[in-house]
Amino acid sequence: MRPLRACLGAAAAVTLAAAGTTALVASNASGATSSLSNRWYAAAPYLMPLDNNPPDAAAIMDATGLKAFQLAFVLAPNGGGCSPTWGGTAAVSSDTAVQSVINTIRAKGGDVSVSIGGYGGTKLGQTCADAASTAAAYQQVITKYGLHAIDFDLEEPEYENTAAIKNEIGAAKILQQNNPGLYVSVTTAGTADGTGWFGKQMLLEAKSQGFTPNNFSIMPFDGGFSGAASQTSALTNFNSILQSTFGWDQATAYAHEGFSGMNGRSDTGEYFTQADFQTVLDYATSHNMDRFTFWSLNRDRQCSPVDNNGTTSGTCSSVAQGAWDFAKYSVQFAGVTPPTTTPTPTPTPTPTPTSCKTAWSATAVYTAGNEVSYNSHNWKAKWWTQNEVPGASEWGPWQDEGAC
What we know:
This protein has helices at 38-42, 57-64, 97-107, 124-127, 131-145, 162-178, 197-209, 227-246, 250-255, 274-286, 327-333, and strands at 23-27, 33-37, 46-47, 68-75, 85-86, 90-91, 111-117, 149-153, 183-189, 215-219, 257-262, 264-265, 271-272, 291-295, 365-366, 371-374, 377-381, 385-386, 398-403. By secondary structure, it is an alpha/beta fold. Helix 6 (162-178) packs across helix 7 (197-209) and helix 10 (274-286) packs parallel to helix 11. Residues 1-32 and 341-351 have low confidence and may be disordered.
């Protein structure tokens, strides 16, 4: 998603518990505890707590009844190494910012899952020597935050690396064994026939290692999709892949299948509205699927203008909506009726204007850390770039530093 996609599983005997009946309890580093059903971890939408203008999790909870959040993304350090970081830059070991977000959510009766991987960046499966060291890095995250849910978002470019995927799947299996009751989801790219060649190879790797997560979720967007009908068709086809790979019957496959959508405008210009989400939600619940989530809460608000000038944003959906409209579908999937009214928001203080940096030039060469201004926003280069317009792609070389 932009940052987002992943998938996998295993064979042999599988015990199917009714969705939403298993309660997990964990404590964070400060000793606080929380308990949610598996259904809530399966319904947790993605939230970037440090990037893309993070929304107030407490406000979302108040407005929608949402209890669970999928925090993204844990990666290897940008300079290499086998230690967990947020986004490749903020070490988990010294983090206080994400911990504060988690504490706020738990104080209101909610909880979090943490997602590793995503689209772009360097993954721990690529830099750690083997499955054991990869698992040790992720265990640091589980221990620090007292997690009882984790998501392996395995997609480009990592899922094209056989050795890296072997490390990730092996790590997931180790974590599952060493953390009894840990809710594990695996997310990958979706295609019209369910998932592509690399996704199918990941399924086979999971099967060979005897690993079965709670679900294998696909992301049916950014692949020529057009509305809900194309998404439910992909989910049907993916179910067939799960059956043929693991020898499951249809109901067992659905009980291990998940949907991870993208609200509003996708990276490739597809549009998914509230009506599309309702259609896929109806499909997921009628087939007793295990997971329904989306990318992302940072985008679950209306752009201004609504169309956002034909570009995909990391901070708004590019469709007409009320704040947190899409989060309410996750709440419905978890089995709770979302509120019909929204509390009056606390007025936001007017920010102090920020001066604009030197204007961006199409002919100039920029390296990581260089700052420019463009379209009344300041931007920072994430890597070497030339003639790539700031804001043209959410996953491009420029990081939006806000209005100036």
